[in-house]
Amino acid sequence: MGRIFLISTNTCCNPYAVYPLGMSTAAGTLIEAGYTVRQFDWLASNRDENSLKREILEFQPDVVGISVRNIDNTDSLCESGEMQELDETKKVIGIIRQNTGSPIIAGGTAISVLPEPVSKYLGADLSVVGESERSITDIIKKILNKESPGPEAENNLCDIAQSSPCFDPAIISFYREKSGIIGLQSKRGCPYYCCYCSYPKIEGNAIRSRSAEAVIADIEKLKRDFKVDTIFFVDSVFNDPDENYLDLAEIMAVKNLGVKWAAYMSPHGLTNKALALCKRAGLYAAELGTDATTDTTLEAMSKPFSWEDVRQTNELFVQAQIPCAHFVIFGGPEETEGTIREGLENINCLESCVVMGFSGIRIYPGTSIYTRAIKEGFIKQADTLLEPVYYVSPKVDKKWMDNYITEAWAKRPDRVFPPEKGQAIVTTLRKMGYKGLLWERMVSFKQNG
Question: pLDDT tens digits, residue range 21-53?
């Protein structure tokens, strides 16, 4: 039917190299539709231009698909590398143009978040906004039939029940050795409305779960065929409010798959019983979207929980002896010098956990912080936001805030700020041969008795 060459251009390794699950899922969809597909990972190739050229010339693709994951590093304290990811992708597209005249389709999270600015900057022939499984085969069919699918194809949210990735052995091997973690998805959609988050725009607010059988089959395949023993569920929130995640955990526990896993979780709605089940199923660490550090700032972030909920959830993880990391953003709506001081005191009371701090909120269209930022004069409606702009509460001085937090956490390896402090720790541990999330190695628990 046609030869489709898929390329992942993500090179970000902070905090670890991320397996290109989006590209693999698109590959699975296209193979099922009858296309011949080849996958190429720019990072796994060590950014080797000659390797990419050889693959293109050997495969002779009819269509090239580019997966674009990141726009920037979302770190307001790091001035270097703001456009590095998009520049890498632009470089890859240039190499493709030199070696084939086949049309280039760009897709991925970066395209979905900022469709027009990113598409224009990269110069691909066509951009796919949102999830590609439903539309990608139709788009390619039109291209191969010399029909025009239009300058930009926007697809609806799809049924992901059958969206099984096609795992490429060489790429899996690279990420197993590089980071020790392979990403997997059990659901899409986020029911929450956090002020900064683009997930609802990308995946919608309704939870759409894959069947437990399909997820289990993927885990068993990763274990059996690729010797993968650690995965990360990349769901926007693993512990969904309807508790569908417990059905999956129950089956994983019964099957005793021999694979440990971590996930993004909300510090809301968890119980001792739920965590005990997840631990039996293989849960070894959790990254919590705590996001703010006081009731005032949590409410302003539109979080559906209080600081007491956070404290109690942290205690549940301590009791279960499962390491957890809280990710918090300082400087969000209603942040003041007073809430900074209160927030640091609150964090100081959290035992046996890691806290990752960030300064300011990266502004994206389609979020409530975007609307607020326009009203408060941070940005204008016409701004493309291709280069990052960060919202910081006008009620706090950012320089004072950054210095105050840095000094407060200077002697705490389990309190990470600025973000580059965490990357330095991770780099050191990786050089020592350690793999995985790595922050969990900074968590210790008191021994019972």
Answer: 999 999 999 999 999 999 999 999 999 999 999
> Rounded distance, CA 171 to CA 283, Å?
25
Are 356 and 416 a contacting pair, CB within 8 Å?
yes
Name the pairing type of β-strands 324-330 and 260-265: unpaired
Q: How many residues does the chain have?
A: 449
* C-alpha to C-alpha distance for 35 and 273, rounded to whole angstroms: 46
Burial label for 242, CB within 10 Å (0-12, 13-18, 19+), is exposed
What is the torsional sign of CA 63, 84, 121, 205?
A: positive
Q: State the pLDDT at residue 28.
A: 93
**pLDDT on residue 82:** 64
Torsion of CA 39, 433, 355, 264, to 10 degrees: 30
Read off the tokens for 116: 């027009």
CB atoms within 10 A of CB 33: 16
For residues 372 and 53, give the distance between their C-alpha atoms in angstroms, rounded to a whole number.
46
Between CA 156 and CA 134 the distance in angstroms is 8
Catalogue all structural domains in the chain, each as residue range(s) with its CATH number: 3-154 (3.40.50.2300), 180-442 (3.80.30.20)
Distances (CA, A) of 385 to 61, 143, 273, 301: 33, 31, 44, 21
Q: Which of 75, 99, 100 is nearest to 85 (CA)?
A: 75
Q: Low-confidence residues of the chain, pLDDT below 70? A: 79-82, 150-163, 448-449
The string of pLDDT tens digits covering residues 327-353 is 999 999 999 999 999 999 999 999 999
